Amino acid sequence: MSLFTSTTGDGSREFCFVHGFTQTGKSWVAAAQAMGDSTNTFVDAPDHGESQGISLSLQETGDELADIAFGKVLVGYSMGARMSLHAVIQHPYAMTGLVLVSGTPGIEDDSERAARVQADEVLASRIESIGTPEFIQEWIRHPLFAKSKFSNEEIQDRSRNTPASLATSLRKCGTGQQESLWPQLQDINIPVLLICGSRDEKFTEIAKRMNQLIQPPALRMVRKNQLTDSTAIQLAIIKKDILPQPIDDPPIAKCSLALQSVYNFVCIQHLHP
Fold first, then answer.
1. Could you name the CATH architecture of 5-105+179-263?
2. Of 95, 168, 215, 249, which has the fewest Cβ atoms less than 10 A away?
3. How distant, in Å, are the alpha carbons of 20, 101, 110, 153, 202 from that of 23?
4. Whose CA is closest to 14, among 44, 40, 34, 36?
5. Where does the chain hold its CATH 3.40.50.1820 domain(s)?
6. Is the confidence at residue 68, as pLDDT, over 70?
7. pTM
């Protein structure tokens, strides 16, 4: 059984979007609509949305995504970013580009990874104990999302994920289950764009380190005055050109604004010329 997908648009640029934990493919629709002339495929990740009942490991999900996103730019957020990174590393010539929003190549230290597995298990048990609606309320009150706004529609969409499905997702695709992909970053041979929130110190440092390993690196910022909205985008690390303009080109700026509209990124000062 294949993962559920839906498609909008008929533009020449093709994107495939993979959401984060507790979300569904619908989470990306607003961002995709802001991107203009593009064809957008939205994936419901394993054990989420219409893909509930399909339980896959990160490696198995990578194989699925390589088929779904063949010839497209693959865009993943958080859990979806980890899945997308697996897809590109396992199938280096399948996708034409990769955008990772708040992504990580995994935990390198074995003891730390084992501790994360235990933490994910505690969280999975919590979901099974209190149910999805109450857990979603706890999840969005996390300090990480303090500046984010969640509509009733988005909360309802997340709440249709069953406790059993979310718990299974953590046990099969949680951060603790991800093998360290740090050594393989140097082998990526397609354009890569890494994005993280300016106030997210953890993922900013991860992105900077990833940038050093993805060759050739080119650290850039989207300048505030190059965008039409002062609440625009944050840190952007790019290898070559995704679309295929440079990061400060208006189409890329529009893509950045589209991501901001979903994930509430904030603009920080230019880090690198």
1. 3-Layer(aba) Sandwich (3.40)
2. 215
3. 6, 14, 29, 12, 22
4. 40
5. 5-105+179-263
6. yes
7. 0.84
